[in-house]
Every structure is written in structure tokens, then in C-alpha cells.
Design goal:
It contains 14 helices and 14 strands. By secondary structure, it is an alpha/beta fold. α3 packs across α6.
Length: about 425
């Protein structure tokens, strides 16, 4: 195989986030500090806050589809449809047996199960009122599977359960499937419907890790000393991945190229992150890319807004990039909250346009930086004019100690 067949590029992106439903809208809202966090009321929890998406569910689906399917499926279908359009792809003109769908997700099925149990309680728990759609709604492959049903895609599909590292993991899986030659086009990324389940709110609330603030816009504040937890969000981003020779042959526009990646495990606890393993993950991604820290222009941090999580990641970032004068550090959850399985894919998308405009969007709501989160070259305040951005490293970490790092570089032919 020629060298171009061993290179994988991004040729399309579709997304929905709490503060934007396209790359252009999302990017402008990050640069202009527009938040997508809103008041939210959910069963059993009551009034809280969440990052809520407002996309056109009927753009690619019928009302009947919405009644049968899931919110995660709708997010996936919307993002995939927009990604295909962005890439200039028409499914009807493609060999759909050579298309794969690889979507990371934190959890799936809780929403539907909670809703069915609640519905049953209104009918004295008579199981005849249990929906016959429950099984296909709750199987783990549902979000990716709904995409294949809607668009007639006949290649492999599955979701990847990787907690909050899942957005990166979906992209990594798509890359690997292209390198194996199992597919010619991969739709890859991550999605989340997490705000639909009260269980996730209840769990974080019982941990004392659910953010509270009188001003919704100020609630999600990673790295700020007054942060008090996570703002749960929904959303997702799906990327079109192709081998470079295929992309060049059809004259596709190219957003960037996958340069390196790594996934590892803390093997040390259920919830508390391990900064040593996180640093090892970033270093492994750099080694695979043939890069050093100085070669990376932007590091997008996972930055959940929890005390332990932010501090551990800051230690890891300083260990890897603390001596780099070139590297700027930012994060995105201050704008949109924590989109769980969709977080990594959305956060990468927020930085991708820096290859074109040379700007680094700042962290939001860092009014008083926690000294324990004082990473070098943290972007705070106004967008930073970086100039020629050549490489981005995207961090995504999750519970049970799963870590992922993905490096995208500016495409050079």
C-alpha cells in the first residue's frame, strides 16, 4: 500500500451541542462566550441545571421514528446526516457495505428503563403496559444501529462503552477499522442523552458532585476555585473518516489528519483519576505521532469541574507540557457542561477550526484560578491569537480509570 493509504483524514463533521447545532455556530459561540447551560427540571430531582440541545429532530427523521426510537438515536442520526452532507457524501451513491458506524457512549438504556418503570407505576405495575419497543431501545448498540436503519448502512456498527473517554474512543475505533481495511468510510465520534435520566443526576448529587449556581451560565466552571461540580449535558459529534488516498481521489475538503492516539487504564480506583496514568496516556499518543510536547499547539483538557478531577488532570498536563512554551491549554465544559459520551468528540470539534482561524477559545468561568490547576499557558479571558496551529491533543478520561488522548494535526499534502 502507498503512504496515503496509511493516513486517515477527517472530511466531515456533524454535531449538536447545547450552544450550537453546526460547526460554524458552535465555534462562534465558543469564541463569543455563549453558554448552553439552562435551568432544567427532571423527575424526582426537581429543579437543577443542564446543557440542553435544541436541534431539528425532524431533519432526518419522521415523527413515527421519534416515537419508536431513542434520544441518543436522534442525536446520532442528526450528527451523522450533517456529517455526510458536510463531507459531500450521498449514501445512495455509495457501497454501504463498506461504511462503518462507531459511536462512543457513556451509558445507554437507563432513560428508557426509567421511563417504562415510571409509566408502569401509573397502571399499578401491570406489565401489559410495558412497551414492546423496550428491547431494541435499550440494547447497547442502539444509537449506532438507529443510524444504520435510517440511512441504509450495511457495514459494521457498534457503540463503544468507554465512560467519558468515549468520544475519543469512537474516533480511534474508526481509525483502526480503516487501517484494517474493514471499511472505506467510518462515521465515528460520541453521543449522549444523559440529561434524560434522573439516575445520573441523583448519583452525582449524592456524591456532592452536581453543580449548583443561581446563575446557570456560571455553574460549570472547571479549574476555578469556586467550582462545585458537574453540569450534566447532552449532545454529540460525528466525524467522517477516510483514508487519504480515497479523500484525495474524490476531491474532499480535509479538516485535519489523525496523527496519534492512546488509550490506557488507571487500574487504581472506580472514580478518583490517576494523574500518572493520564500523563502516560498523553506521552504514548505523542510517541505514536512522532511528536514531542513542543509540537502540540493546543491541549483540550477533559476538565469536568470536580475538585479531584481537575487537580489530577492539571498535574498530568503539567508533567507532559509544563516545559512547553508553545502549547496553549483550554477546555470547553464551562460553555456546555459535561456531555459524557459525547464530550470528547464535541470538545475536539470546538478546537478544529483553529487550524483555519488560528484562534484558541478560552476557558469559561475561570474567574479565580485554583492554584492547584495552574497549568502553563492556560487560555483565560479572551480568545488567544495563536497563529499557525499545527496540532491539537484532545484529552478524554472516564470512570473506572479509562484514559484517552487523540492527536489531530493540520493536513499537509
Amino acid at each position: 500500500m502507498n503512504d496515503n493509504s496509511r493516513r486517515v483524514v477527517i472530511t466531515g463533521i456533524g454535531l449538536t451541542s447545547p450552544n450550537g447545532n453546526s460547526m460554524e455556530e458552535y465555534r462562534q459561540n465558543l469564541l463569543n462566550k455563549v453558554s448552553g447551560v439552562q435551568p432544567y427540571n427532571i423527575r424526582y430531582i426537581g429543579d437543577t441545571l443542564a446543557g440542553i440541545c435544541n436541534f431539528d429532530q425532524l431533519k432526518y427523521q419522521r415523527r413515527k421514528d421519534l416515537r419508536v426510537g431513542t434520544r441518543a438515536g436522534s442525536v446520532s442520526i442528526y450528527c451523522t446526516g450533517d456529517a455526510a452532507a458536510d463531507a459531500g457524501l450521498e449514501f445512495s451513491e455509495m457501497d454501504t457495505t463498506r461504511i462503518g458506524i462507531f459511536l462512543g457512549i457513556t451509558e445507554h438504556g437507563n432513560v428508557e428503563t426509567e421511563n417504562e418503570v415510571f409509566n408502569l407505576s401509573q397502571f399499578d405495575y401491570d406489565v401489559k403496559y410495558w412497551s414492546h419497543h423496550h428491547n431494541p431501545r435499550t440494547v447497547a448498540n442502539n444509537p449506532a444501529g438507529e443510524v444504520t436503519v435510517r440511512f441504509g448502512i450495511k457495514g459494521p456498527h457498534y457503540t463503544l462503552g468507554a465512560a467519558c473517554a468515549a468520544g475519543n474512543v469512537g474516533l480511534i475505533q474508526g481509525y483502526q477499522q480503516l487501517m484494517l481495511g474493514d471499511v472505506d468510510v467510518a462515521f465515528a465520534g460520541g453521543v449522549s442523552e444523559s440529561i434524560q435520566t434522573f439516575g445520573i443526576f441523583a448519583a452525582f448529587k449524592s456524591q456532592g458532585a452536581l453543580a449548583e449556581n443561581a446563575d446557570p451560565v456560571s455553574a460549570s466552571r472547571p479549574f476555578d476555585k469556586d467550582r462545585n461540580g458537574i453540569v450534566i449535558a447532552e449532545g454529540g459529534a460525528v466525524y467522517v473518516l477516510e483514508r487519504l488516498d480515497d479523500a484525495l481521489q474524490r476531491g474532499a475538503k480535509i479538516y485535519g489528519e489523525i496523527a496519534g492516539y492512546a488509550i490506557n487504564s488507571d487500574a487504581s480506583g472506580f472514580v478518583l483519576p490517576n494523574n500518572v496514568r493520564q500523563a502516560e496516556c498523553m506521552n504514548l499518543a505523542l510517541n505514536r505521532a512522532g511528536m514531542n510536547a513542543e509540537d502540540v499547539d493546543i491541549v483540550s483538557t477533559h476538565a469536568t469541574g470536580t475538585s479531584a478531577g481537575d487537580i489530577q488532570e492539571s498535574l498530568a498536563v503539567n508533567a507532559v507540557f509544563g516545559e512547553s512554551e508553545n502549547t496553549l491549554i483550554n477546555n470547553t465544559k464551562g460553555y456546555i457542561g459535561h456531555a459524557m459520551g459525547g464530550a470528547g468528540a464535541l470538545e475536539l470539534a470546538g478546537n478544529m477550526m483553529a487550524f483555519e482561524d488560528g484562534l484558541v477559545h478560552p476557558c469559561m468561568n475561570v474567574d479565580s484560578l485554583d492554584p492547584e490547576c495552574a497549568v502553563r499557558n492556560l487560555a483565560i479571558g479572551d480568545p488567544v491569537e495563536k497563529g499557525d496551529v499545527k496540532a491539537i491533543l484532545n484529552n478524554s478520561f472516564g470512570m473506572l480509570g479509562i484514559n484517552s488522548a487523540l492527536i489531530i494535526k493540520k493536513f499537509v499534502g
